[in-house]
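Q: I have 121 residues here and want to know how they pack in 3D. Can you give me a structure?
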Amino acid sequence: MKEYTDRRCSAQQPKIQVGTFVRIRKPGITKKGHSKFTQPFKVVAQKGSATYLLSDGKIWNAVHLAPAASCVTISDAASVAEDSFMPLEALQTPQMQVSPSCSLRPHRVRRAPVWSKDYVT
């Protein structure tokens, strides 16, 4: 019955590999301004067809996991606060390195308004 249901529902195997970083989706509704995901954890081992052991010592089903950004690597995930709001410069400590080729967010170009060109002070 499982094989029949998987074929009918187009079930797919998760594409999470051992050694990659994933984030856990927080259950329920999160507060405004807070992240829906935890800090990145490293996948240590695959326990079942869709269950994984993470570096925090807990086993999670792939439904609750989301891949973390490929440009962020964390050597000590416990040192970064879960919902901390700090500028990117403050987070770039020896625990967290961001590769220079990967931009986390786009930045817009800021210019003075055109109407202020003829303003005399």
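Q: Anything worth noting?
A: The helical segments are 2-8, 88-91. The two ends are 80 Å apart (CA to CA).
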